[in-house]
Amino acid sequence: TPATAAAATSEMTVSYRLATEADREALRGALLRYFYPEEGVNTCYNGSPEVAPDDVDFYVNLITEGCTTLAIEDGTGQIVGFCAGGMLNGDEAQNMAQLAQTTETEKFADILRFLAFMAKQANIAERYGVSNIYYMYGVGVDHRYRQRSVASALMEQQFELARKLGAAVAYGDTTGVKSAGMCKKLGMEIVYSIAYNDYR
């Protein structure tokens, strides 16, 4: 019955760890299951709601950075949350713009150009007078585990990784009101915002 299912869900617990190469396909499945269907830029894209395969590959390949944190459902071993991050190498706006020239799909190229625009407007290095910058690419949580502080826990782990790597600032782009609210509760500040329709 629904009541039984709800009770079972409330008793589920999660453990947290860093992703390894062995998690690549499981992370790919998680991205497609509960991240991309609701990710703002993907769903608002004017060309197609379909997920760009090279966009997914980009997220999966971030595992090699060693900074993708996972929430694992105890008992099943299923990935029920993730947050991908890493230290930036040079000018992020320029890096994103250059990557946009080599993508497989036009959709991912457009997304990268948008992220390059955001990075240029935020101008984190100059704004804070720093060069060691940690970037959080995205966070996602399975629907069954929302409102249980899983995303906040994943973000806190990202902050700790940033500190260990010597970052002076950690930042990311949010594409939803709820994620922006969570970031503010975690002590982050909004340095730039724009409506996607205004950008287009």
Automatic annotation (TrEMBL):
<keyword id="KW-0808">Transferase</keyword>
<feature type="domain" description="N-acetyltransferase">
    <location>
        <begin position="14"/>
        <end position="200"/>
    </location>
</feature>
<dbReference type="InterPro" id="IPR016181">
    <property type="entry name" value="Acyl_CoA_acyltransferase"/>
</dbReference>
<protein>
    <submittedName>
        <fullName>Dopamine N-acetyltransferase</fullName>
    </submittedName>
</protein>
<dbReference type="Pfam" id="PF00583">
    <property type="entry name" value="Acetyltransf_1"/>
</dbReference>
<dbReference type="InterPro" id="IPR000182">
    <property type="entry name" value="GNAT_dom"/>
</dbReference>
<dbReference type="GO" id="GO:0008080">
    <property type="term" value="F:N-acetyltransferase activity"/>
</dbReference>
